[in-house]
Design goal:
The protein is elongated. It is built from 20 helices and 18 strands. It has an eight-stranded antiparallel β-sheet. Strands 1-2-10-7-8-9 form a six-stranded mixed β-sheet, sandwiched between helices. A four-stranded parallel β-sheet has the order 5-4-3-6, with helices on both faces. The chain has three domains: 230 residues, Rossmann fold, CATH 3.40.50.1100; 92 residues, Rossmann fold (3-Layer(aba) Sandwich); 176 residues, Biosynthetic Threonine Deaminase, domain 3. Helix 1 crosses helix 9, helix 12 crosses helix 14 and helix 15 runs antiparallel to helix 18.
Length: 512
Amino acid sequence: MVPMLESYVKKILASSVYDLAEETPLQSAPGLSKRLGVDVMLKREDQQPVFSFKIRGSFNKMAQMPPAQQQRGVITASAGNHAQGVAMAAAHLGIKATIVMGRNTPSIKVNAVRAWGAKVVLHGDGYDQAFAHAMALEKEHQLVYVHAYDDKEVIAGQGTIGMEIVNQHPGQPDVIFVPVGGGGLIAGIAAYVKYLYPKTQVVGVEAQGSACLHAAMQAGRRVKLPAETLDLFADGVSVAQIGKEGFAVARKYVDEVVVASIDEICGAIKDVFEETRVVAEPAGALAVAGMKSYIQAKVAAGAPLPRTAVAIVSGANVNFDRLRHISERAEVGEHREAVLAVSIKEQRGSFLKFCRTLGKRGISEFNYRYAQEQSAHIYVGLQVSTPEDKAQVIEDLRDKDYEVVDMTDNEAAKLHVRHMVGGRNLHAQPELLYRFEFPERPGALLQFLSGLGADWNITLFHYRNHGAAYGRVLVGFQGGAGERRRLGQYLRRIGYRFWEETDNPAYAMFLR
């Protein structure tokens, strides 16, 4: 076993990554350290010139190619970050590069690759289809393939991260968390770290839906996940089968593999932002998500915690338009939001009674539309502090005879249904529609409903917390034009800014 490690350590020490790559800082994370009870440090690979660790392996591979191979040109398939590394390395070394990328690759990565002068070919819907096409082009045009992870020189280049951690960390780290896609990064880090510090735990972290190393560890051999089941949220690690070279190292020297959900990854992106003010991509925050899950499991089991933990922040190439989705899911991933469907009686005052049951607990979302004579369904997002707090909220509601369905882990509900709650006024009752701005503070909704009292029947209610100083709320009231003046008096008394939207064409088309 040792000869394998010795071979990689020699390659890592002889690598030439620093002709182009940076030695990135190992940064303390005081917020995470305080919350988790462990001294947490983040390895900031997002600070590389291409905002990802991938420049290390790709440059090391290409710099050590013989001149004859360099003259032929290179080709690779990549989910994006390896592509940028190859493109930048090729530009630096004067090598022609062709990059095959899946059509699902974020445009920020595609544009960055083109900016380095590489030829981009978009093919397939994920890495495996792009890889097959790249292999065909390699043979057709006699190019040299630079693999994203299944290559010893690439693994050695990535392994320089392990060397830096050992040099930068004050003493021996107890555990290092590494994101896993094809396995090149974790193989390189494990080889160097385990050679010097056999007792340091190396833990791989994979995204739920693309956990190919976890599956291989359980099976004792490399297995291929069905392409149709691969989750593409963390596109940088969406790989169906762990690399052969990487698995040869990982099966012996990786101590454990943790699998993180989309919500947990989104929560970790928020954690990284709060510690660094950098927005990591989903794959980039994966190690932090796994670290939190690993430590929480230790706490739940009453097991001793590590004193120190290092998590690799592996990249920050994220499309801006993904941030809305990430932000929406982060609170659930942090166990700070519960998403519930609650049935209430369809009668005056029942909405107010329900909100009083919740008290001044923060509300992140509230959707309601009058639809039935006897009962109504409310889709509500509630701020909670722990999973136990969420369970207590549900128990309290059920004790007061509310029917509650926990939607917190319901993917369809969170992705789609939450935006579709509502519909038309099926009973064609007269209705007045108003738009409000609520101050974003606990108790604002309860203050609004208490001001209305039980004199008005609410027929539609939609509220979402957008992270601004004021929440935007749309409310329908049962009543016709003759009651507009009296309703206005109530609304002005509450003191929130509002605008009438009864004649808004969007309301007429979709809700009335």
